[in-house]
Amino acid sequence: MSAVPTADITQILQDWNAGDQDAPARLMPLVYDELRRLGAEYLRKERSDHTLQATALVHEAYLKLVDQTKVEWRNRLHFASIAARAMRQVLVEYARAHRADKRGGKLRKIYLDETKELGQARDPDLVELDEALKNFAGLYPRESEVVELRFFGGLDTGEIAQVLNVSTKTIVRDWTFARTWLCRELSENAA
């Protein structure tokens, strides 16, 4: 998305808001490469027998995006934040669908490389991370958006600040707090 002029994407999103049925089809070619890059980055360091491909992740997430009927698209960064949430949902659904056996056996884990920043001795699996994020979002909505935009949206501190309409210092503070809270939560659940 960064190689495409922001104004072009914003205009298509505004057309989509206005009811243009062709807007999603015009948008996809402009954002596909960036979404695929993000999807590939999520999946790059996964287990070798992982069957979800970046293309499938992007397509599933895009279907979720097209089904959004109550979103007032604002701009490219807003779209990226909603796309991040859609990719997270796809990844979590995929992880949950791949339980090893009916007796509660091992979960096939999908790890996000970014979780290494949480300082865990082991990487949390995506389902554990999702549950922790849901708990965190209930208590700290903005801070959970920071985590989601960073992990799943691939946005940097400045972009997150712009999406959330706060200062970069606030984002740095929120990230530090979120990382500490999630590390503690994931450690307690592992024990």
Compose a concise summary of this entry.
By secondary structure, the chain is mainly alpha-helical. The chain has eight helices and no strands.
- Portion of residues within helices: 55-70%
* SSE arrangement, N to C: HHHHHHHH
Strand content: under 5%
Task: Round the Cα radius of gyration to an integer and report it.
Answer: 17 Å
Distance between the termini: 41 Å
Rounded mean pLDDT is 78
Structural notes for this entry:
Mean pLDDT is 78; it is low at 99-103. The protein is globular and about 50 Å long. With 191 residues, it is mostly helical. The protein is built from eight helices and no strands. The chain has one domain (6-190). The N and C termini lie far apart (41 Å). α1 packs across α2, α3 (54-66) packs across α4 (76-97) and α6 (141-151) packs across α8 (168-190).
From the structure above, extract its key features.
191 residues, mainly alpha, 8 helices, globular
List strands and helices in order, with pairings.
Elements: H1 6-17, H2 23-43, H3 54-66, H4 76-97, H5 126-139, H6 141-151, H7 157-164, H8 168-190
Helix pairs in contact: 1-2, 2-3, 3-4, 5-6, 5-8, 6-8, 7-8
